[in-house]
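Reminder to self: tokens first, then the designed residues, so the page reads top to bottom the way the pipeline ran.
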């Protein structure tokens, strides 16, 4: 599955998407409330096959105002709750939460859409007074098609970002690849707070700290928000401005990470990384972890390696990579977090903490013995 992202051109009629997402938020909260009540009574959750017939009933009785939304879009909101509960009971996530209107971000269309060059058509329904029935109402929205999508389209999504802009996501089954030239080189990479990436060949790659650079500007925008009357038009304008700046920072980081991943794929055939323990890292390093975006980078790198026919390894979370000497394998138990450089007591080799870890990560990908140490 691949997702292609396009900007929907600003237009007055985009308001319809706003209404759509607001109504879907109601649907989400309504069915979540129902789930919670069901759970209190029967100590199990109601799956989608119980909820969907209930929705059919609601659409004819108390929730007629939801009927203008395509049925599969409504169903998708319910399926999302169902999936969240399944993940929760499998121990893979938290319980779904009630949402505020502006936090509800996406709507999925599996059938009621049509794609054309730079345009998408969504069929909503509207009540016809003369025939006393719902009739289809097709609406076209144009989007900026800056690139073509490949593969068969599975579904599309409409997204609202925090700055109030709308995006079209086209999800296809495309799995095509673009092989890159083989180089015969492999590398281990170690993530760090001071240095974003350390390569086992001794190279250090610093992250440009976009957030730090624009902190001053963010502070200014924050101040502007606090000066406005909450809920006023000016306040909303200032909030959107702030959101837009955060989005810009995220885009800059993403762009830099794509380029870095491409560069690594070009230079190496095999790339080994550690498995991230994000909660542990947050405890150790604080909020800066999310600013650096390690997790996003790992996902991106894995995709890039797949696309360019390179091998991507992740060594197990419990593989010791910091303490063993990469030269003789002796474990340095006295190593503390602040030791950036150390000397092995057995073989006297000098180590840079991060480079040593990166070498161990690369070795663990090839050699299962290290993993058992
Ligand atoms: Zn040693």
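Designed residues (373 positions):
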């Amino acid at each position: 599955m691949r997702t292609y992202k396009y900007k929907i051109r600003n237009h007055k009629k985009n308001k319809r998407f706003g209404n759509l997402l607001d109504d879907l938020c109601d649907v989400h909260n309504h069915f979540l409330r129902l789930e919670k009540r069901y759970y209190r009574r029967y100590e199990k959750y109601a799956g989608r096959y119980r909820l969907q017939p209930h929705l059919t009933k609601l659409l004819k009785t108390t929730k007629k105002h939801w009927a203008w939304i395509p049925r599969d879009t409504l169903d998708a909101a319910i399926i999302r709750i169902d999936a969240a509960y399944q993940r929760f009971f499998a121990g893979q996530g938290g319980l779904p939460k009630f949402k505020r209107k502006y936090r509800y971000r996406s709507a999925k269309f599996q059938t009621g859409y049509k794609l054309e060059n730079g345009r998408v058509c969504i069929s909503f329904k509207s009540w016809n007074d003369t025939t006393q029935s719902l009739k289809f109402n097709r609406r076209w929205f144009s989007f900026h098609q800056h690139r073509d999508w490949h593969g068969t389209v599975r579904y599309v999504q409409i997204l609202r970002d925090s700055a109030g802009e709308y995006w079209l996501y086209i999800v296809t089954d495309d799995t095509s690849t673009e092989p890159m030239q083989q180089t015969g080189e492999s590398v281990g990479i170690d993530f760090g707070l001071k240095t974003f990436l350390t390569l086992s060949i001794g190279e250090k790659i610093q992250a440009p700290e976009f957030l730090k650079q624009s902190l001053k500007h963010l502070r200014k925008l924050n101040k502007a928000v606090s000066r406005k009357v909450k809920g006023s038009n000016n306040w909303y304008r200032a909030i959107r401005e702030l959101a837009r700046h955060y989005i810009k920072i995220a885009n800059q980081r993403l762009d830099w990470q794509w380029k870095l991943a491409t560069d690594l794929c070009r230079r190496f055939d095999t790339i080994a990384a550690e498995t991230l323990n994000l909660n542990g890292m947050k405890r150790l390093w604080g909020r800066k972890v999310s600013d650096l975006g390690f997790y996003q980078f790992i996902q991106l790198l894995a995709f890039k390696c797949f696309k360019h026919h390179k091998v991507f390894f992740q060594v197990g979370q419990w593989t010791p990579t910091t303490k063993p000497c990469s030269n003789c394998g002796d474990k340095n138990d006295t190593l503390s977090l602040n030791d950036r450089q150390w000397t092995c007591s057995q073989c006297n080799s000098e180590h840079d903490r991060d480079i040593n870890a990166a070498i161990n990560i690369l070795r663990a990908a090839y050699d299962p013995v290290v993993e058992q140490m």
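The chain has a mean pLDDT of 89.
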